[in-house]
Amino acid sequence: MLSLLLPLIGFAVVTLFTPGPNNMMLTTSGLNFGFRRSIPHIAGIAVGFPLMVLLVGWGLAGLFATSETLHKVLKVVGTLYLLYLAYKIGSAEPKIDEGERCAKPMSFWQAAAFQWVNPKGWIMAVSAATSFTTINGDNFREVLVIGAVFFVFGIPSSAVWCAFGMMIRRWLTASHHIRAFNIAMALALVASIVPMVME
Questions:
Q1: Does residue 99 carry a pLDDT above 50?
Q2: Residue 145 and which of 4, 38, 96, 132 are 20 to 30 A apart at CA?
Q3: Which of 189, 1, 160 is nearest to 86 (CA)?
Q4: How confident is the model at residue 53 (pLDDT cuts 50, 70, 90)?
Q5: Coil, helix or strand at residue 170
Q6: What is the domain partition of the chain in residue ranges?
Q7: What percent of the chain has pLDDT over 90?
């Protein structure tokens, strides 16, 4: 397992920091709600995804591997939910004044639960659990290390994407700019799931 640690860190950094559903939504949340109000969203991803990795690594993946129907249902439900989120992001009413904002960012529990319908999350979790465990090793401990790596690097990844959205707001000074950005993020969210749906 020790020899796999550096490749595991590399895998985690690349997959966590590259665009995907979580990062598109965090950027949008940073722009629309600011960093402080998005902290529960950040924390939900930072905790929810490593927890998913643990459960997948400790055997849940086997359940889905034996049931092709269950796998297809999960993919359809996840895709529909992501399309719904893309619609909500794209149709969100832009608010310039901080005091005018009545919409709420994603909560901790919503962000944590979202991991289970995120196709990229499933691919990452299954890939990590199968690629970075050894045949004769201590599966419990190895999966625990994998989950810990995703937790450690997930926090800065989520924070960076949220901060990026917040920083962009300085240049988006009119409501039509924010609306255009929200639509662009909604389209990016849809685009991020296309390769996973086509598999």
A1: no
A2: 38
A3: 189
A4: very high
A5: coil
A6: 21-95+102-198
A7: 27
